[in-house]
Structure formats: structure tokens, C-alpha cells
Amino acid sequence: MSIRPTLARSHRAAALRRHVGGSALMEAIVALVLFGTGIVGLVGLQSQMVTSQSDAKYRADAVYLVSELVGAMWADRPNLASYASAQCASHAPCKDWTDKVAAALPAGSTEVAVDNGIVTVTLTWSPPNYGTHTYSASTAIRF
User: Fold this and answer.
1) For the chain, what is the domain count?
2) pLDDT tens digits along 23-65
């Protein structure tokens, strides 16, 4: 008599172990799916951060370049009209600055307008796969 209850308990224990083993496998699969989803989210976040950082760098470079040109114009006030876009290629400091813009900003272009001491400098650049950006600043340079 003692053999039968022991066998019955043994079969029940084996069945319970098989059931528990299957649920542990399901828990592991769910954990892997959640972990994978989190990793994909982090990769997307990293990609967006790199794009934003590049955009911020180009904007900072544009502000610096405009400030540099305005400083050069203040130092060279007698030749202020030579900095206008039409005459820029023939004036060495302006030509050097235009070359620096082309090197610092992707597809960078410049537009400089000088009208009776009011100077407007506009920079345009196009980062790859991100659209066109423009930065413009105006100031008065008087004698």
C-alpha cells in the first residue's frame, strides 16, 4: 500500500515541474522582448542626440563666423563697402572669411549687405539629410 501513494505523488510532482519549467521559459522570453525594446529605444535616442549635437555645433559655428566678420569690419571701417557680397571676392579679408564659411559649414554660403553703415550678414548651410538653415545678424557700423 505504501508504494501506490508514493508513485502518485511522484507523478504529480513531475507534472508540476513540467508546468513550472514552461512558465519560466515564457518569463525569460518576455524579459528578452522587453530588454530588446529598451535597447532599440536607447539606440534611437542616441541617434537623435547626435543629430541635435551636430545641429547645435553648426549654429554655434555660424554665430562665431558672423561675429568674426563684424569684428573685421569694425577694424577695417574705411573699406566697409568692400565687404558687400558683390565686392567680397576682390577684398582679401572678406574672401578669406567666405572661404572659412565654406569650410566650416556644410554647403555654406554667405550674403553680406552694407547700406549706409547698416550691415546684414546672412549665412545659409545644409547639413546632410536635415534641411536648410539660415542665420542672419544686423548691426550698425559707424565712423
Assistant:
1) 1
2) 788 888 999 999 999 999 999 999 889 888 888 999 999 999 9
What is the three-class DSSP state of 122? Answer: strand
Expressed as residue numbers, the domain containing 62 is 3-140
CA dist., res. 113 & res. 69, Å (int): 12
Could you give the 3-state DSSP secondary structure of residue 120? Answer: strand
Task: Encode 66-98: b = buried (16+ Cβ within 10 Å), e = exposed.
Answer: beebbeebeeeeeebebbbbeebeebebbeebb
Instruction: Supply 36's cell numbers.
Output: 530588446
Share in percent of the chain as helix, strand, coil (round to 5): 65, 15, 15
Q: Distance between CA 7 and CA 123 in Å, rounded? A: 87
Global pTM value:
0.71
Reported as type and span, the H/E element at residue 118 is strand 118-125
Evaluate the CA torsion angle 48, 51, 56, 59 in order and state its sign.
negative
Pairing mode, strands 109-115 and 118-125: antiparallel
